[in-house]
Amino acid sequence: MQKKYWLVLIIPILFNACSTAPTAQEIVDSAILAHGGKTFDKFQVDFDFRDKHYTAIRKGGEFTYIRAFTDSTGTYRDVLNNTGFTRHRNDTLQSLTDEKRKAFTNSVNSVIYFALLPFGLNDPAVVKELVGEEEVKGKRYFVIKVSFKQEGGGADFEDEFLYWIKSENYTVDYLAYSYHTNGGGIRFREAVNPQNVGGILWQDYINYKPADEKGTSLLQLMPMFKEGKLVELSSIELKNMQVSTDLN
To answer: Any residues with CB less than 8 A from the CB of 129 and at least 6 apart, and which?
Structure first.
């Protein structure tokens, strides 16, 4: 079974490698422009994701990501910025172990990272490669592989991503990634419900996984998606979204 999927995707990749195509950098630049461009340089977005409220503020190279929620133990406010991570419980600064600080940092950063895609794909630690072109539902896509340098790549520098970027308008319609936290795994996401709010294109996702995560590679996920062989896990929905670009 594994050899079958490799052949399905590798053949079109090799065929299209011979044709003239923009570089991976040019494709990513066009995708960022299509999703918001200069608006990403200075903005604030607020949204609800599941039972938590998130705020992302970016001013050039400065950023502040906030997560606020209430549960049976109190009201929490997590703040991740250029200087690090802090947690307040009922307005009192909490003392955290390194393990918990790392886990909370990864959790906050992950939600914001996916919400802002493809912004972030030009970070210095990102390594981009055009691995081919592919047709999905009658549309042509550039397939971009993203990996990370260890220096500046964060705790998850070993993660790998594939992005399917539509050649027609450079939107990121599908992505797949492998991760190593919490035992590791592999996921495939289909973008749905695109909406332009505040000059930025936001998208929800349907989240999938293969039945055999350990025995499946990233390149196998799109053929499996086309054949309806992925398991739907969840919906990634950003609600009550508000965007402001008028920041002091």
So the answer is: 24, 144, 145, 146, 147
Q: How far apart are CA 75 and CA 187, in angstroms?
A: 31
pLDDT in tens, 36-59: 999 999 999 999 999 999 999 999
Model pLDDT for residues 100-158, shown as the tens digit of each residue: 999 999 999 999 999 999 999 999 999 999 999 999 999 999 999 999 886 654 555 67
∠ CA 185-124-33, nearest 5°, is 90
CB atoms within 10 A of CB 194: 12
Confidence (pTM): 0.86
Residue 168: both structure tokens together: 């027609």
| DSSP track, 47-115 | EEETTEEEEEEEETTEEEEEEEEEETTEEEEEEEETTEEEEEETTEEPP--HHHHHHHHHHHHHHHHHH
Whether residue 175 has pLDDT greater than 80: yes
CA distance 234 to 226: 18
Instruction: Quote the CA–CA distance of 154 and 208 in Å, as a whole number.
Output: 25
- State how far the Cα of 106 lies from the Cα of 153, in Å rounded to an integer: 12
Q: Which is nearest to 238 in space by CA: 116, 121, 118?
A: 116
Place of tokens 């949204």: 47
Name 51's Cβ contacts closer than 8 Å, sequence gap at least 6: 69
- Strands lying side by side in the sheet with 239-244: 92-93, 84-89, 74-81, 62-71, 52-59, 42-49, 239-244
